[in-house]
Amino acid sequence: MIRWQVPRRPLRRGGAVGLFFLVGGWGLPLTGRAQESGVSSAFQPFVETIPGTLVQFEMIPIPGGTFQKANPDPEGQPLQVEVQPFWIGKTEVTWDEYDVFFLRLDLPEDQRKAGVDARSRPSRPYGAPDRGFGHHAYPVLGVSYYAAEEYCRWLSAKTGKKYRLPTEAEWEYACRAGAAEAGPVADPAALEEVAWCWENSDDKTHPVAQKKPNAWGLYDMLGNVAEWCLKEQPDQPPVVRGGSYNDRAAQVSCGARMPEVPEWDATDPQRPKGKWWLSDAPFVGFRLVCEGTGG
Q: DSSP secondary structure string, 84-144?
């Protein structure tokens, strides 16, 4: 098994290909069913405000379509997959958003001080949760799969919408945006324009939306933090996609994936280990999907 941990290890990869992202404000046209389905007048971007706060984030509509998904087996053939329309976060979830959940900022001050809360919330990590990389507008990092799912459940209850993690098919489909291939990016300059990786990150995350978006207006799908996807089988480990600031350029792509391994939480001294934070995986974050009627 290939293991991804600190120090760096390679992700599975395909052959070198080009990458088609927005450059100078333009993008390549969509292909196949994604182009044909279009976007209805009701299927538009929307801005969500977390109730009880001024914190906002934007969700982008992704038209349904059929595409050739990268096979988790590097020796296997691409998989024909159909994806239904959905909304996905314009950026990775930031600390500005996650702090509302983590620090109980949605509750009145007297309830926060009294510890009155009907919902389980993340425990305090031993060190700074952002590892000193930066906080405002920076992506959440080092959160477990359990924590990401609990955030989605909390946000769904707060807003009345159905928020969750993307499936692997949804994530890859959104990343490729109707044009990009799954394998490593052939042109280093093209990757430099859209992703924070080992070669340009200074070994840390960066504020979201500082690089150029892909053809569907999504930022940081590649690099910065790798992103949790929904587990496809209950008995299998969850997977992160896209690579991170911690990976070489060759391992940052729309097809990059890695299942969680025990080494991501090796130095957590708790017994049993904490369920909210990954002590050795600052390269892991997540992005939201919204089902149903969206905004």
A: --EEEESSPPBHHHHHHHHTTTTS-HHHHHHT--SS--PPPPSS-TTTTS--TTPBP-SB-
